[in-house]
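Re: that chain you flagged

S.,

Sorry for the slow reply, it's been a week of failed gels. I finally had a moment to sit down with the sequence you sent. For the record, here it is as I used it:
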Amino acid sequence: MRSYGQQCALARALDVVGERWTLLIVRELLIRDGCRYTDLRKGLPGIPTNLLADRLDEMEKAGLVTKEAAPPPVATNLFRLTQRGRELEAAIAALGRWGAPLLAKNPGKDEFCDHWVALPLRLYVRDNAPSGPAVRLGMLAGDELVTLETVGDGSVQVRSGKPVDADARIEGTPQQILALLTGKLKLADAQAHGLCYEGDAKLLRRFSS
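Prediction finished late last night. Pasting the structure tokens below so you have them in one place:
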């Protein structure tokens, strides 16, 4: 691991997480706890396999990641963030907000994985009426099935998989769904661009960024 050699907290942090791909590996492990190596490769388009192995090794030595054998019959290792690694979530959220305006540049040229929508939904969507009844939204974001639930403290819980007893259902691109639930896109405008919504439209007033 290279070092800036500076007695500065930011420099020391960058010594650990400033290498190319490291924070994107953290992103994947924040989205999907207990990730196989093949899952990480799929969620990191463009990363050379030897570089991913090197980064995981460096992160394990730095105390950000643990590696454990998956239970039978799966013969593979699972990678998880340690508590120290999970503490990077706030930094990931801040960088995501800062980088959001940059997404408008060359939107059609870059890779996008549908499962990436889970993290910004969890980090940026807020419940405006946490004292109200619980709300569960079932979503098909591209090819990714996601369930979003209010949890009573203003935040939301996001998990992969088909929802049970959803109060409303949304089907559209991950970008449309995120824009709708953060208040950046009105329902009528989203529907005009192909988004499908089933349920009481008033439920959407619960959410904002």
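What I noticed first: The mean pLDDT is 93.

Talk soon,
D.
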